[in-house]
Amino acid sequence: MTSYSLAGLQAQFGGHLSGHPPAFDGPIEHWLYDSRHQVPGPGAVFLALPGPHRDGHGFIGQAYQKGVRLFWVAQPIATDAYPDAAFWQVPDVLAALQRLAAHHRAQFQGTVVGITGSNGKTTVKEWLTTLLEGQFDVYKSPRSYNSQLGVALALLGLRPHHQVALIECGISQVGEMARLAAMVQPSFGVLTHLGDAHANGFADGAEKVAEKLALFPPDCPVVSFRHGATYTPLVERHLAQRTAPVVAPSVGTLQLTSALYQSTTGSWEVTLEVGGTPIAATAPIAGEAGCENLVLALASAHLLGLRPEQVSQRSGLLRPLELRTQLLTDNPEVVVLADAYNADIDSIRNAVALLLTQRQLPTRRLILSDIEHLGRDSAELHAKLVRELSQALGAEHLELIGPQFTAAAAALGATEVQVYPSVAAYLARFEYHRYRGAVVLVKGARRFELEQILPRLARHSGPTVLQINLNAAIENLRTLQAPLPPGTGTVVMLKAGAYGTGAWQLAQALVPAGVAYLGVAQPYEGIELRERGITAPILVLYPDPTLQQCASYDLEPVISGWAQVEALVALDPATYPLAGVHLEFDTGMARLGFSPAEAAAVTARLAQQPVPVATCFTHLAASEDPAQDAFTRSQLSAFAAAAAQVRLRYPGCKRHALNTGGALRFPEAAYELVRLGIGLYGIDPRGPATSQLREIGSLRTVVAQLHTYPAGTSVGYGRAEVLQAEARIATLPLGYADGLPRSVGERRFSVLIRGQRAPIVGRVCMDVCMAEVTHIAGVAEGDEAVVFGAQGTEVQSIEALAQASGTIAYEVLARIPARVRRVYLRE
Length: 827
Hints:
Elements lengths: L5 H8 L2 E4 L10 E3 L11 E4 L12 H6 L4 E4 L12 E4 L3 H14 L4 E6 L4 H12 L5 E3 L7 H8 L8 E5 L7 H9 L3 E4 L13 H9 L8 E3 L8 H7 L6 E3 L3 E3 L1 E7 L5 E7 L2 E7 L4 H16 L4 H8 L9 E7 L2 E6 L5 H13 L5 E7 L8 H16 L4 E4 L1 H10 L5 E3 L2 H6 L9 E6 L10 H4 L7 E5 H12 L7 E5 L1 H5 L3 H8 L6 E4 L2 H9 L6 E3 L6 H6 L3 E4 L2 H9 L10 E5 L13 H8 L6 E6 L10 H21 L4 E3 L3 H6 L7 E4 L20 E6 L2 E5 L4 E2 L5 E2 L4 E6 L17 E4 L2 E6 L7 E4 L11 E8 L2 E3 L1 H8 L3 H6 L6 E6 L1
Parallel strand pairs: 2-3, 3-4, 4-5, 6-8, 6-9, 7-8, 9-10, 17-21, 18-19, 18-21, 19-20, 22-41, 23-24, 23-30, 24-25, 25-26, 26-27, 27-28, 28-29
Antiparallel strand pairs: 1-5, 11-12, 13-14, 14-15, 16-17, 16-41, 22-31, 31-39, 32-35, 33-34, 35-38, 36-37, 36-39, 37-38, 39-40
Helix pairs in contact: 3-5, 3-6, 4-9, 5-6, 7-8, 12-13, 16-18, 22-23
């Protein structure tokens, strides 16, 4: 398997070279597609890829400034601006990369395992790696690199010494799998759970199944769990084109069967029979989905060469995966980015790039464990990473744990890097003051159990948390933007602490995704964003009487009344410069704003102040309700007239009328901007029935105590409920002071425990509530309880909690207080 240069690629694949000739022959060692990422060192090539919102060609200058000198482009480049750089121009950068990945894979002599499905791909890949690594030199796709770009980058990491490669493949549209299959060319296949994920890209289930299975050639052995939701008649019909659902050419047709038993400790005890060979295994994995993934990993490990006793022995090493980075912000002195479950070189680089973007506190530090699964390259790669991270963060900000990093730092003479042979050694020397004023990335392999470090860095580590999925927020932004006219900008509403989810945390995730403005209610909310390093334009809905404060923090006020107009005209623009102001018109909300008839007079008065009117807007009162569509259209008509008057004097003024409900139902009225609020948080104002949005919040706690009470026992305050039969009652450390409405007691609402619904009994107390778990087998103290969110295959919507308490989801989310710890998740 060869190394590559731009000159070699041009000779093999065509295209055009330009720029600095000596760089043409330089070896390519790293592939970059995001100019924000840290450049690992010489030999990095930047891929100028087009995206739905941004084109990589626009970031060539940034990549060059960071030290990149090799570029793949699809457009002619003025090379005079980059005197020592080289450019390879091809018609399609991604297609060229995929051709190279296919060429690279074709030279590989080992076994390539293609893994696809809707859910569980990354989990099966990671567990299969753990099972195989003692017997084989295993290579795996970094993190969840399963896209058209990710698979190509993953394959380019293959080296001759690898024996088994585990390549994850994900698709969302018809035609995508053919391109992945051409690159991966799998010699062994695993089909994981087929669910509803990405279903919108296919006409029906049959088309989706056919597309997924297009990864596997007809003679490719495929493992599919016969007893799970994956193995349906539809799947069986497609797999019938092969010899059997599980085929091993060397030993003939193999049938996979299973007998499953779940213990009270949350582990699966599994007995498999593969080709007549029994395999017994036990792993601390909970839930039916976990069991299905476990069976697939165990069977695949055996078919790839592990003896039954090896599979059984190594199954005890498997653990549930947390595949997302956690952002912990409950401590004002320390912000923590935590991924204590996974570490490979690419994911470390991505995490460090994320760390370098954090500006909430002045310092950035990294706590990192040894990397596993590196085979014979381990010593060299650990040493290389020490050098790279020292350059990116400063050696004094590195704390490395494990024998590999300890040896690498010693060999390099990196005396400023702090190294520890184990987590126990690190904890023994822990000093909190080192982290005060820092954003700390904690990242490592699962076996090091770096989560032991997190309580040392937190303000409080209570069991009740509101988890916020930042990836879901970004997906919701994309979903809401999709039906809008091209070029429509977005105002992201972050008022009330982003509806209780955390304003600056959401801003950090959403601003890079492409937004025109952030919207807040009060100046102090905008000031907090500025103090946390947010530089995007910020619109303030209710600034009166603090225009001076807005100017001091580069905030843009909304002007909605004549008193504000006069205050603005009187403001000294030299002392208090404003980037712009925003005019609000009341077209039927009866709340705030000028009447449309006042538009000409307002703009005439504002013209005496040099501050531009950046936007004008109105607020729709009932955009989500079809019964009110006539009223909504009357509002839009009234606003159109007002906006036309404003633009006579301010022709560059942008217009926005649509909120979330309006964006979903009236995209044709988008104008230049839309304001997206509750929809970003996954709550569809039209109702959940047809929503394509994902709720980003999940409220979770644990079972604190368990008691069995006889019939006739009264539960909670006021003896509001008396048990009619003996019952087992779980006490949960979550009450109305944590945002659980008091009105949902007395069996009006249930929490999820072990994937089943446990009704809240008695009245909700300030700090605790009680739930009956008599009907749920094996409940133990410490078990998770979910108020809203997912647990295994069960999902409970925040809408359900809102309905049970007689309010709306907006209020439930916004009223979860600061004492509930927020944890932010991001892949």
